[in-house]
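Lab channel / #folding
Pinned by the channel admin:
"Please post every new chain as: sequence first, then the structure tokens as a reply. Keep commentary short and put observations after the output so the thread stays searchable."

First post following the new format, from NK:
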Amino acid sequence: MRTATIKRTTGETQIELTLNLDGTGKCDVENPIGFFDHMLKSFCKHGLFDLSGSIKGDLNVDQHHTIEDTGIVLGECFKKALGDCAGIFRSGFFIYPMDETLAQAAVDFGGRPYLVCNSQLTGVPLVSVQDGKEGTFQTDCFEDFWQGFTNSAQCNLHIDVIRGRSDHHKIEGCFKAVARAIRAATEIDARRNGAIPSTKGVIV
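Reply from TO:
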């Protein structure tokens, strides 16, 4: 099975995640940020990845460390689970429509980290209320999450919002588009017969 468990403990965050690339879309992660939890669940559901673990961070400071470090740990999980990338498609692309929003993502697990993120977010935090308590999601952390992911997964990732109005829809549409692109890239290509998908003979 293509699985990985990564634990990251710093003075700012304590994060442990277990990933199964060949899952059924289950997400069982203790996540203190409501909207972020919703995004990880959407990512797993649409990518058919299983993810479990816990996320803790210095939310008394802000959400940046917690969200960025989660991206780092998730990227490390993908890197470890993919190993030498033998037999996979390696690259993937998807356009996801979500109401008025149209989001697209393209990814290449080619060993060279690079992020292009054109999310067109307003930067205004999303506000929610649950059990009488108000919560927020710092939309400016969206790009930080994917930067952490690409750096540690060592992949190219291009995220673009083609059009949209709602920041909620833009972010969620992007998470779903990225999930489907990564799913396409990490699936096994039967015609490749287990070969490494690079003319170099190695992913570096």
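NK: Residues 167-186 form the longest helix (20 residues).
TO: also worth noting, The chain has a mean pLDDT of 96.
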